Amino acid sequence: MVSAGKFQVMTLTDAAAGRVKELVENSDKNAVGLRVGIKKGGCAGMEYTMDMVEEAQAGDDIIEDKGAKLFVDPSAVLFLLGTEMDFEVTKFRSGFVFKNPNEVSACGCGESVSLQAADLSNAAQ
Known about the structure:
Layout: E1 10-12, H1 14-25, E2 33-41, E3 45-53, E4 61-65, E5 68-72, H2 77-80, E6 83-89, E7 94-99, E8 103-106, E9 113-115
Parallel strand pairs: 1-6, 2-5
Antiparallel strand pairs: 2-3, 4-5, 6-7, 8-9
């Protein structure tokens, strides 16, 4: 697994890895993985983004975990450090779920979050 410096950027559960592989295999593009990032939006201030990737972009952190490949947008790395990505199916929805230690709050519908950059001051210990 590739990491930012010596920090592991993200991990995937078995369910998330399986879903990423399924999406890539069924893509009508020549996809090699899924790019994860963040953007401003939603009622809490930020939203996670995901797009199919045909090739890596300069600065991408590439995570290969359980046979799945994620490309982390360089501008999102500090907001995603330590995040676990899961995929869940419930009675009312299915989708990726992010367990992010940098999350400060989330909106009631769960579609947007408020994030802070990871605190790296204690990471070197």
